[in-house]
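Annex B.
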Amino acid sequence: RCETCSEEEAKYRCPRCMKYSCSLLCVKKHKLALSCNGVRDKTAFVSVNEFTDLNLLSDYRFLEDVGRTADAAARHPTVHSPAAKKLLYCLRNKARRCNIDLRTLPVGFTKRRENSTTFNFTEKKFYWHLKLVFPHCHAEYTLKGVPDDKTLADILKPYIDPVESDPVVCQRLKIYTGSPRSDVQILMKIENRKQNSIRYNELDASRSLLDNLKGKIIIEYPTFFVVLKTLKNDMVILGQDASEPAENSDSDGSSLSSMEEGEIRDS
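Box C/D snoRNA protein 1: predicted structure tokens.
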């Protein structure tokens, strides 16, 4: 049976989320409801028992795509621009002095093109490019020029505050605006972990953006996930899993993070 309308016999199966659908209309409905793009996740975890020759071939082709993307990015004229190199070096150096491990992707990657983070030498502070994700409402918002001394609570006010938020945004995020502030949880994905071991750091809404980013690895710009404690989600917070110690990362950074792999697919 179709998993969208539950009336007709299923004819299609989504390569991304494996949901069954009976028609184009139900396919569009399931994509809208689950924010599914219908594109197979080439980096999805596959256990050894389920690994087949097709998976091996898929991995081989994925690595070929990675090689082509990296080669094209290396040939891009902007890569060799002294001004661009100086700007990136300055951003990474200033972030390092703030105890932030800022890492940049090659030219041609989606996040590299999007990133608008700057450092103001007069004020001696960062103005961050920031992405807010509200999983319970399948909504994403991009912010530009966010000062690093602004608290996370103030950053979220235009979105989840019932008084100060925009009416359109408020309506879309009504499940958040109708919840008490104590129920709102801000999470940030920990980079450079294994694909099947994704963990998140919980951030303090009362502290500044800079304080929350200290000691973290950031690929291009921060992405915050705003969730509600009372609603079920699959995000595991570091330190709340009894099977592992509360450490910052289990990788030395030599391999691509899952976020970087996603950027390769987008490029």
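The chain is about 35% helix and 20% strand. The mean pLDDT is 81. Further annotation is deferred to the next reporting cycle.
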